[in-house]
Structures are given as C-alpha cells and as structure tokens.
Amino acid sequence: MTSNWKTRFLQAFTKAFQDCSPGSSIKLACLTAMEELLISKGSMLLCDVGDSELVDYQIVWIRELPRLLILLGDRHPSYSEVVLRLLLHLGQCCSISSVLTAEYDNTQYSLQEFYSTSHEDGNICYGPFIRLSRDCQELSLSCLYYFSHLDMLLLKSIAFCCLCHELDSSVLFRIIEVLHSAYEAGHIQIADHISFFITLVSRLKVCPENIFPPNDSDATISNRGTFKLLTCMVCSCLSQMGDNSLLFLILERVIMEQLSQKPLLDNAYAMLRILVVLDAKPTRLSEKSIVTLSNFLTGYLLDVVHCIPEDDDNSVGSIRRHAQRYYFVPCFFLFDRSLKLLTLTLNMMGSLITESTSSPSHGYCNRCATDHLSRINAIASVLLSVHKEPKFQHVLSLLRTEIDCILQGISSVKTSEGSNLTTGERHRIQYAFDRIETTTRSFPQQMGM
After folding, report:
1. CA-CA distance, 165 to 208, in Å (whole number)?
2. Cα–Cα distances in Å, from 136 out to 38, 131, 132?
3. Using CA atoms, how far apart are residues 281 and 248, in angstroms rounded to an integer?
4. pLDDT tens for residues 30-45?
5. Do residues 355 and 362 make contact, with C-beta atoms less than 8 angstroms apart?
6. pTM (predicted TM-score)
C-alpha cells in the first residue's frame, strides 16, 4: 500500500465512521473493520512506532468509542455489545503493548456519562449502563480492570449506579468484585477504594424502611437482604486490604463523620460493623471517638427497640428478638472492647430519661419517640438485651452505679409526672423499673451498692 493511497484510505474510513448514524449498518461494518485495524489475530495492537500516521488514526478511533456508546444508549444493544467487546480487547492488548495505553486509560473520562452523572442539585442522571443487557454490563465491567489507574470520578459515577434500585443485585456484587480485583492489581488508590465502599454502605437506601412492614407486598420488594450481603462483602474486602490498624486509622474519622449525620438504621449498622471488623481488643478507638460513639449508640440502640418492638406471641417474638440482636451485635463487640464506651452509653441513657421531651440533645434517635414513657421502656429493653449476653453479666455488675442512676431517673419521672399519667402509663413505667431492678438483683452481692 503506497503512502498516499493509505492516507486517503484512512481519511475516508475515519470520515465514514464519524459521519454515519450510530445505529446504521455502516457503523457496524466500520467497527468490524476497526477491530482488524487495531488488533491483529494474535491480539497484539498494530502500533508500529514508525507508522505514526496509523497510530494517529488509531487514537482518533479509540476516542470515538465512548462517545458512540453514549449515543447508542440502550436502543441498539447489539451495537453496544460490539463496541464494548472492542474496548475490552483494546484493554487486554494495551496491558501488553504500552503505545496506546494512555489513550485507553483516557477513555474512562468519557465513559463516566455511560454509567451516571451527578448534577449540582444532587440529582443523578443514569446512563445506558443501567438499562443494557447483562452481557453488555459484564463487558463494560471487565473493561474497568484494564485501566492502569481508575480515576475517582469514574468510581463515583459507578458508585451512583450501585445506588440505583433498578440495578440487579448480581451486577452490584460483580462491580465490587471487579473493582476489588483492580485494587489488588494496583489500579485503584486505597483512599479511593475506601471512599467507594463508604459511599455504598452509607447511601444505599434500604426499602422499605420498616423492618417488619405491615403489608406483605412491601416485604416482597425489600432489598434488605441485598444490603446485608453487600455489608458482608464490603467487610470482607476491607479485611483483605492489609494492615487493619492502618485501615482503622483511615476509616475511624470518616465513619464518625457519617454517623454524625444520623444515617438510617441499616446504614448505621453497616458502618458500625466495619468498625468492628477493623477494630481490636482493647479498642483502637480514640478518646474523642469513644465519646462521640457513646452519644450515637444511645440513640441507635433505642431506635432498634423502637423499630423492632417486642411481641408477646412466641413465634413472632422469637423472630423479632433475632432481628433485634442482629442490629445489637456490633454494639456488643464495641462494648466488650471498651468498658468506657459502655459506661458512657449507660450515662447517656440515664440523662436521656429526664431530658426535656421537646428537644432531646443526645444520640441518634431518628425514629425513637421522644416521650419519657417510650424512652424508659426502650432503655429497659436495651439493658435486658445486654444483660442476656453472658459476657456482659459480670461487666454490668461493675456498672451498678450507672444502672442505679437510670433507676433513680425512672423514679423521678414517675414522681414528677405522676398526676399527668394515666393508670396504664404508670403501670408501664413501673414495669420497666421492675425489669431493670430484677436484673440488678442477679448481680453478685459484693458488687451491690
């Protein structure tokens, strides 16, 4: 092929590719020819450094591929699959030949719109990825592994896709799997990888919010099971990322900031569990974090009781107790590793009993009722749940002073509001008092005060 003829051919081919409509047969023919011009049968890029003209055109074609994907949308899935397969082959070849690696890496900036874009008002605009076939989604995810460095902006775009309820759970888990493999290969910075995980567990909304929805139809569409698996997967990935003490140091402040924003119950549970996975005994929590966490856990525990109330029916009650314990377990681990955290949490509960009902200043309490009666009964339920754990039966006996303060607070409420309480309300307050007092009687006598 003479130089002039080759130049005219490359110009004509490139113009035909750029000018034809995205869903045309000409575009598909060009893509097929392009693969031959970019990749040989041996899967090696035809990138002879001496043939700068061909390389220049190869660069133009590579830059057109992400734009074409976005133009195709979800209207021509077979064409999208061809483009994605070509991108994947390019990525696999670029990992061997470095001449066009930079161009392949740069396609990730154009691919952000393929996944999602966020606007200043907080709205998310999802790209074709969400609606394409599972095969196309798999091809696009496989491409991610071959970027020599995954930029945070693309990770953010993918994270927003993970928050979309239209995304199949299997694709969500596949995204995590691919990105974690990319991290292990050195293609994602540790801070970016952690940020991706925190975005998922803090912002993925569990529906319905009610753990035991009144309508069976709400239960059938729940994604709570998916979120539980996601939490397990994130914790597993984090535990494989290296020195837990270093990871804890990075994540401690981030999680405390997230908890201060009062996340929903399941999101809060996920972040507490991450702390537990990376923590040790004795705790790695700083003094500041212990104080912050005691404030948060007070409301979190009461919220669990409020969202999963006790039930007299044995079969239903057993299910609810199991569900309660699921949300309590991270707290139990944290209390076991820090007596100070448990002490401060009990103190917070004591002060919460007599605090003004109109403006509670402590804790999480997203949904826990603010009246004294609800608080008192919730606190009694929490204390009994902690006491049922064998490892805490002796520990609580060491905190008799804090528990006595809670009992005194309950007595004070009963006395000060006695005339305003109905017979039923007085009975419920007395019942809560008796439950706690009965628990304290089981403490060793020498620890009593």
Report:
1. 12
2. 21, 10, 6
3. 13
4. 999 998 888 865 444 4
5. yes
6. 0.90
